[in-house]
Amino acid sequence: MIGDRAYDSDRLDRELAEHGIELIAPHKRNRRKPATQDRRKLRRYLRRWKIERLFAWLQNFRRVLTRWEYHAANYLAFVQLGCMRILLRAYF
Questions:
Q1: Given phi > 0 = left and psi -120 to 50 = alpha, else beta, which region is 20?
Q2: Residue 35 — pLDDT band, cuts 50, 70, 90?
Q3: Which terminus in the chain has less CB density within 10 A, N or C?
Q4: From CA 46, how far away is CA 23, in angstroms rounded?
Q5: How far is 84 from 22, CA to CA, in rounded Å?
Q6: Which backbone phi and psi does 24 adopt, to 5 degrees?
Q7: What pLDDT does residue 51 have?
Q8: Contact 26, 5 (CB under 8 A)
Q9: Which whole-number Å values give the CA distances from 63 to 55, 70, 71, 86, in the listed order?
Q10: 3-class DSSP state for residue 39?
Q11: How far apart are CA 27 and CA 38, in angstroms?
């Protein structure tokens, strides 16, 4: 799981590790305990902006922003159409 600085907690890290989930989050500036994050893993955190930007672009489509579809499959189809349109706009 990738999170921002607010997720930096040893307790949360332990609880997620019990379920087999690895937490990747940069440390808070006021952290008193020794660092537990490896710099190599934080590279994935730095690429997180791509996903956040995709969600921001998907909000330009009204049918995706407000879920009017009753069936989840129809909603997923509109999300996929929005992704295709964003991709085509970027390359053509």
A1: left
A2: low
A3: C
A4: 14
A5: 31
A6: -120, 110
A7: 80
A8: yes
A9: 14, 12, 13, 15
A10: helix
A11: 11
Residue with tokens 């956040």: 52
Enter the tokens of residue 61. 């489509």
pLDDT at 53: 86
Phi and psi at 2, nearest 5°, equal: -110, 130
What residues contact residue 2 under an 8 Å CB cut-off, 6+ apart?
A: 24, 25, 44, 45, 48
Three-state DSSP state, 1: coil
Cα torsion 65, 67, 69, 75: sign = positive
Average pLDDT of the segment spanning 45-53: 78
